[in-house]
Every structure is written in structure tokens, then in C-alpha cells.
Amino acid sequence: MDIIEQYLLRSQEIIGNRTQEEKRYDKEVTRWLRKGKNIRKAITKANKKYPKEALQVDESNINGVAAHYEYILEHEDIIQKISH
Q: Does the predicted model carry a pTM greater than 0.85?
């Protein structure tokens, strides 16, 4: 197994299996993050667009949520680089 395959397997473990709705929600969060919004603002925007998938964030979980979406942003960048 090469390093790319190992990375892809590990990233799947981290991100997990996501429904289409969850993927759309994640894409909305990352879209706002890429526009320079902070994680709270990005979550608020995504919650408005996809209320069924809405995340509830507070001081107890905001750091974990932020880390999760930072990982997704980095993962998207890596996938784009290896796809070209």
C-alpha cells in the first residue's frame, strides 16, 4: 500500500461516512471558512441553509468542531493537489 492509499484510508477514518446532506453541510461550512469567516460564523451560515444538519456549538465543543473543519479544509487541498 503506497502513502497516498494510506492517507486516504486514514482520512476516511477521521472524516467518517457522511450522508449526502452531511456532505453538503460540510461543504457549506468550508465555503464560508475559505471566504475568511471564523468557525462560528461559518457554522451559523451552514445552520441557516441546512437546518436539519445544524450543529450546536458552544465553549465545550467549538475547538473540536474547528479542528474537524480545519482538517477537512486541508484534506480538500491535498485531494486537489494529488488529483492534478
A: yes
